[in-house]
């Protein structure tokens, strides 16, 4: 399982707010029940099969275009660990235990 963080930045809109584009992306992600999705203030964390996650990210890109953006700039961070399984909550707990 992989952890990906996606940030989409719509370009070519007439407004500075991006929440409608992010909301559209989040709605699309609901179509991927096998992925764990967590919205945060700066992006969306996606946990699950990496191929399915890339499929979901591509669908997010399209939703931003469908909502009126002329261009989409996306930042994707990937943590693809294969030596052991760890949930999103376990990853956070590991850091908190060390604080």
UniProtKB/TrEMBL annotation:
Domain Thiamine-binding protein: 5-96
Positions in coiled-coil regions: none
Gene3D superfamilies: 3.30.70.930
Xref: SUPFAM superfamilies: MTH1187/YkoF-like (SSF89957)
Listed GO CC annotations: cytosol
Name of a matching Pfam family: Thiamine_BP
InterPro entries in the record: MTH1187/YkoF-like (IPR029756), Thiamine_BP (IPR002767), UPF0045_domain (IPR051614)
Family, similarity comment: Belongs to the UPF0045 family.
The protein's name: MTH1187 family thiamine-binding protein
Source lineage: Bacteria, Bacillati, Bacillota, Tissierellia, Tissierellales
């Amino acid at each position: 399982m992989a952890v990906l963080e996606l940030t989409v930045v719509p370009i070519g809109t007439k407004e500075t707010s991006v929440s409608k584009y992010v909301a559209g992306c989040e709605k699309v992600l609901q179509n991927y029940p096998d992925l764990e999705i967590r919205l945060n203030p700066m992006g969306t964390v996606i946990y699950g099969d990496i191929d399915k996650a890339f499929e979901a990210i591509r669908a997010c890109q399209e939703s931003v275009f469908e909502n009126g953006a002329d261009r989409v700039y996306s930042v994707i961070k990937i943590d693809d660990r294969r030596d052991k399984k760890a949930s999103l909550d376990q990853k956070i707990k590991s850091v908190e235990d060390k604080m």
